[in-house]
Amino acid sequence: MQEDFLHHIWQYRKFAFGKLLTCKGEELQILHSGHYLQQAGPDFFNAQIYIGNQKWAGNIEIHVKSSDWYVHHHENDPAYDAVILHVVWEHDTNVFRSDNSEIPVLELKNYVAKETLESYLSLSSAKSWIYCEKDLASVNGFVLKKWQERLFFERLERKALPMQQHLLRNQHDWETTLFCFLAKNFGLNTNGDSFFAIADSILFSIIRKEKSEVENLEALFFGRAGFLREEKQDVYYLNLQNRWHYLSDKYQLKNVFIEPLQFFKHRPDNFPTIRLAQLAQLYHQQDNLFSKIIASESVSALYSVFNVKVSDYWQTHYQFDKESPKKRKVLTSSFVELLVVNTIVPIQFSYAKHLGKEVSDDLIGFLEEIAAEKNVIIDKFSGFGIHAENAFDSQTLLQLKNEYCNNKKCLQCEIGIELLKK
């Protein structure tokens, strides 16, 4: 038995509340079960009840056992002095407030229907992947759609939080924050943190000043990444090395530790050298990138903004000193879509929130233009009858699995609540 199930039972009145008696045999009537605020202190606030002929207004505390009151040291906490009823599954001891007055107790197990308990046990019993996998496809489509919208914005809030924290550190320089988080996503999962550190260690004012020459941007990025420390005969390498020494002296760039960039297990087009060269080309070509992204009303408009290839040298190289067959190495549509999901939509959301604008439908529309991600989680849900038609769907399913299913939050999930109703 879990407390969250008891919260669910109390909140939705999933018990025979018509003829209740306290553990001392006093008649109990519930006028208002209270507000479930999920914050510090008692579980339900501002409830109203009758015990006998006496009306009480105050808070409700819920535990599996009465003795949990002492396990949690509520007897010494004044925040619990306004508790008017202790609701438990099993009553094993009397409980008292800090002034030694006894708190009435309702033992719920005497009033919960066998079918309700069986539904809960069925939902919470271990399955191969998620608890509700056998019943997931039976959930009402309207309920699922509304829950997906909430999941989407929960995930968006989580992605936007580091951006908002970064903005506080840089006095709300949106171009700087966009640069750092674009860099992070150019680095993908393996090199993302290192790419972010590279971008964060170079003032964006320097990028603005040096962007007219793509070699200067490449020198800054490759130099910061530690790629220009060796002795090589490659002419282009020596050019970047000289530029890096000049620029680092000019701008007094301090030494910072950057985790070494990884090539292992990457396809050549995802080598950090190529992604840094593409990032340099993007900022060489585009002025006021943040404004263009905010003004974009469709994913197709963003394809043109991110229509960049690498410089001539990198069309015939994947690493310094190693020539390869010529390839333009453009940013693919799938890579741009990755940027949209992980950087562009979160920063659009953050900016709209900053301005107090409502853009929920626009952001959902952005992701509905993009194909769903392909991974094990999305495939598993598809096998249970929940299909991701686009990136909005797949993002919500990732949030559902990672934040609810993995943490067994069935009773905080609208799908779990809907299944218990059945």
How many distinct domains? 2
Q: Provide the residue-averaged pLDDT.
A: 92
Number of continuous helical runs: 18
Distance between the termini: 20 Å
Order of helices and strands: HEEEEEHEEHHHHHHHHHHHEEHHHHH
Structural class: alpha+beta
Number of strands: 9
Principal-axis shape equals: elongated
Main traits of this protein?
single chain, 422 residues, alpha+beta, 2 domains, seven-stranded mixed beta sheet, two-stranded antiparallel ribbon, 18 helices, 11% strand, elongated, DUF2851, DUF2851 domain-containing protein
What does this structure look like?
The chain has two domains: 3-112, no CATH class; 152-367, no CATH class. Helix 3 (114-124) runs antiparallel to helix 18, helix 4 (141-169) crosses helix 17 and helix 8 runs antiparallel to helix 10 (272-285). The strands form two sheets. Strands 1, 2, 3, 4, 5, 6 and 7 form a seven-stranded mixed sheet that branches. The chain is built from 18 helices and nine strands. By secondary structure, it is of the alpha+beta class. The longest helix has 29 residues, at 141-169.
Please write out the topology.
Layout: H1 3-11, E1 20-21, E2 27-32, E3 35-36, E4 44-51, E5 54-65, H2 68-71, E6 83-90, E7 105-107, H3 114-124, H4 141-169, H5 174-186, H6 188-200, H7 204-210, H8 214-224, H9 235-250, H10 272-285, H11 289-295, H12 299-305, H13 312-315, E8 317-319, E9 322-323, H14 333-355, H15 360-368, H16 376-383, H17 391-405, H18 414-421
Parallel strand pairs: 5-6, 6-7
Antiparallel strand pairs: 1-2, 2-4, 3-4, 4-5, 8-9
